[in-house]
Amino acid sequence: MFRNTKLNYGLIAIACHWLSAVVVIGLFAVGVWMVELTYYSPWYKTAPHWHKSVGILLLGVTLFRLVWRLVNPKPASEPNHQTWEKVSAQIAHGAIYLLLLVIMAAGILISTAEGRGIMVFDWFELPGLTPLIENQADIAGDIHQYAAYSLIALVLLHALGALKHHFIDKDSTLLKMIKFNRG
């Protein structure tokens, strides 16, 4: 029920997948919105604090997901999947994880560019880093932005691929990420 099998994803993988999907889309939307805030907006300090806090928690979930993938079997592809689909899926999944890590690392570099730590919902503080390069916040900000737009584009392709498998190919690819193995 909790672990993956050779046929289905388990509850842990499914919950982490959908939690990450909702959080990534939410963080992207908030990120696009908050860069337009003015100093006099009541959200000027609150929105970035929440964005950073949720982003740090997502980093923890993402690192957990990567470890979970290593210690759990991956369900087999459907027999009707073409080689190009399998290779594309592997590349897309790898790129999604890479972009997530790049975005989060860049976000940390933006927030700690002046040596301050990142307070996560008043629960704990991620220690600040000594600035690594000149104009660190600006360079990391550009990387954060472009990687986020790239991630959203890839997430859309990922979703379209899942919908193609479900509605056109009529296979169980999408269902594997919706229904967990009850053992």
Automatic annotation (TrEMBL):
Q: What residue ranges are annotated as transmembrane?
A: 7-34, 54-71, 91-113, 146-163
What cofactors does the UniProt entry give for this protein? heme b
Q: Where is the Cytochrome b561 bacterial/Ni-hydrogenase domain?
A: 8-178
Any coiled-coil ranges, and where?
A: none
Supply the alphabetized keyword list.
Answer: Cell membrane, Electron transport, Heme, Iron, Membrane, Metal-binding, Transmembrane, Transmembrane helix, Transport
Where is it localised? Cell membrane
Bilayer topology reads: Multi-pass membrane protein
Q: Which domain of life is it from?
A: Bacteria
- Similarity field: Belongs to the cytochrome b561 family.
- Tell me the protein's name: Cytochrome b561
Q: Which organism is it from?
A: Shewanella decolorationis S12
